[in-house]
Amino acid sequence: MDRKDRARPPLALTGSRGSRILGTASPGGSGRRAVVVATISTLVFFGLIVLLVVNAAGWPDVKHAFFDRSIFEESFPEIARAFLVNVKIFLIAEVFILVFALFIAVLRGLPGPVFFPIRALATVYTDLFRGIPTILVIYILGFGVTALQLPGVPVSPLFWGAVALVLVYSAYVSEVYRAGIESVHPSQAAAARSLGLTHGQTLRFVVIPQAVRRVIPPLLNDFIGLQKDTALVALLGVVEAFRQSQIDVSATFNYTPYICTAILFIAITIPMARFTDWLIARDKRRQQAGRMA
Amino acid sequence: MTAALEIEALHKSFGNLEVLRGIDLELAEHEVVCLIGASGSGKSTLLRCVNLLEPIDAGRIVLHGAVITAGGIDVNRVRRGIGIVFQSFNLFPHMSVVDNVTLGPRKALGLSTSEAEVRGEELLERFGLADKRDEYPDRLSGGQQQRVAIVRALAMQPALLLLDEVTSALDRARRRSARGHSRARGRGNDDAHRDPRDELRPRRGASRVLPRRRADTRGRPA
Fold first, then answer.
1. Residues 6+ away with beta carbon under 8 Å from A221
2. B87 close to B146: Cβ distance less than 8 angstroms
3. Residue A67, min C-alpha distance to chain B (Å)
4. Binary contact (B86, A209; C-beta < 8 A)
5. For labeling, which of B98, B157, B163, B215 is most exposed (least CB within 10 Å)?
6. CATH match of B5-212 with 3.40.50.300
7. Using CA atoms, how far apart are residues A14 and A10, in angstroms rounded to an integer?
8. How many Å is the maximal CA-CA distance in chain A?
9. Distance between CA B57 and CA B20 in Å, rounded?
10. CA of A22 vs chain B CAs: smallest distance (Å)
11. Nearest-CA neighbor of B109 among B134, B147, B76?
12. Parallel, antiparallel, or unpaired for β B82-85 and B160-164?
């Protein structure tokens, strides 16, 4: 009896949420029928593609070269371990990018003629690092700066690879931030300034909190790109997932390790993409709730 | 007796559009002045100029004997003494009602959070918004939003209160009570400069009514 009572509220919740999803999925139609149609069309579509590939003349060769089960099982643990290096680069770079890019975006928005040189510098920075191919930035920093043999400056290729990614991605992300900052209506800043808040306080308490909320989806989009580009650090000799798979490919004369690496990358980028979609959908729901009230 | 606010030969243009052409205005301490005029005649622009949100082209504005339109003036300090309620309220959508109201006192006046909340809650109570303390602006009706905006301006305890079309979103009962509050402030140690453009007896409560002519010019809503 007691248990039954406790189970009721969650049940009621799923009920109301379920009906809302149904309502948006098929306005005026049966939800179950839509699911059945979608399932059948998906099976037919992908079934045709598989048939096409499997019946291709070169399929046996491709199957042997890319989808060798024993090689997969052998190289997977090694590549997965190397993949931790990618995850490490990604996680560390992400933190620095979030902070540094916001700093650049704020510099670009400094008001008044006094700050012209700082604004110009921030603009040159974003132009430069969005303009140069990432691969070149990695080479220039990884081989150039370390060759200077400056005392106290790290020579680790992993360090310089991460620095290159931070510099390149901060340029992109700062533009995302800037778009967000500019999307906050000037009347918000006017209201804050009318209370006697300084330009900095206005940014910190009123403009940036609203801007960041708006740019979370495009920010995550850039981070999906960053996750993939961690493989470029291999060019400096860092043994991460891509380099490890190259090593395995040369050892076995088989491309299956590349498939291994691709699966590992997908395993983290797809959840990120779905998370982004979920955030966008949640934002939309919230705005609509606000309008209805 | 010196005037609380003096505006002398104020000029303001947006590009080729001359919105304010030589405005002179003098407000005594505790005076409630109501500015009426056709839509686009520059009422909002005048208020924005007084609050230093719009740079002026010529003339000067004197507040309590100090020229606030002179160069080198600390605009943030001036604005702390001037409250403004915008026509479209401009509440902060990412903050609860109480945070909207206490942001200015906390960050610009340096009050502690508890001091600012005591002040804010007292005002919210007076405007019948005590139960909306933790709501977000999007969840409030237009009239409730407008009252929050009034409370936000009053929480700074300004010497001068600028109200842009202040009772437009309030019903008649609320309008009467809001008028009572602004008048109470007018009689106290503050003077208020109101600008209710609604047609329903805008002049009631004002000790002076100034028509804004020159309907050929177009202002921008604040």
1. A276
2. no
3. 51
4. no
5. B215
6. yes
7. 6
8. 76
9. 9
10. 26
11. B76
12. parallel
- Select from B44, B77, B103 the residue whose CB has the most chain A CBs within 10 Å, as the one to mutate to test that interface: B103
Interface touch A196/B79, C-beta < 8 Å: yes
> In angstroms, rounded to a whole number, what is the distance separating the alpha carbons of residues A217 and A276?
5
Per-residue pLDDT of chain A (293 residues; tens, 9 = 90+): 444 444 444 433 344 444 444 444 445 557 889 999 999 999 999 999 999 999 999 999 999 999 999 999 999 999 999 999 999 999 999 999 999 999 999 999 898 889 999 999 999 999 999 999 999 999 999 999 888 888 888 888 999 999 999 999 999 999 999 999 999 999 999 999 999 999 999 999 999 999 998 898 889 889 989 999 999 999 998 999 999 999 999 999 999 999 999 999 999 888 988 988 888 788 777 666 654 43
Question: Tokens 């001359």 map to which residue?
Answer: B18
Phi–psi pair at B188, nearest 5 degrees = -75, -140
Residue-range definition of the domain harbouring residue A186: 71-292
User: Which amino acid is it at A51?
Assistant: L
Question: Tens digits of per-residue pLDDT, A79-107?
Answer: 999 999 999 999 999 999 999 999 999 99
Tally of domains within chain A: 2
Task: Name the DSSP letter for residue A81.
Answer: H
Does A110 share its domain with A21? Answer: no
The closest of A123, A158, A117 to A240, measured between CA atoms, is A158
Q: For residue B215, which phi and psi values (nearest 5 degrees)?
A: -75, 0
Q: Chain B: nearest CA to A196, how far in angstroms?
A: 4
Pair type for strands B5-14 and B17-27: antiparallel
CB B205 within 8 A of CB B29: no
Q: Which residues of A touch B90 (CB under 8 A)?
A: 187-188, 190-191
Within its chain, how far is the Cα of A202 from the centroid?
A: 29
Instruction: Output the domain CATH number for residue A271.
Output: 1.10.3720.10
Instruction: Give the closest of A193, A291, A293 to B79, CB-based.
Output: A193
ipTM of the complex: 0.81
- Are the C-beta atoms of residues A158 and A238 closer than 8 Å to each other? yes
CB contact under 8 A, A196 and B152: no
Q: Judge if A18 and A105 occupy the same domain.
A: no
**Tokens coding A61:** 């060769």
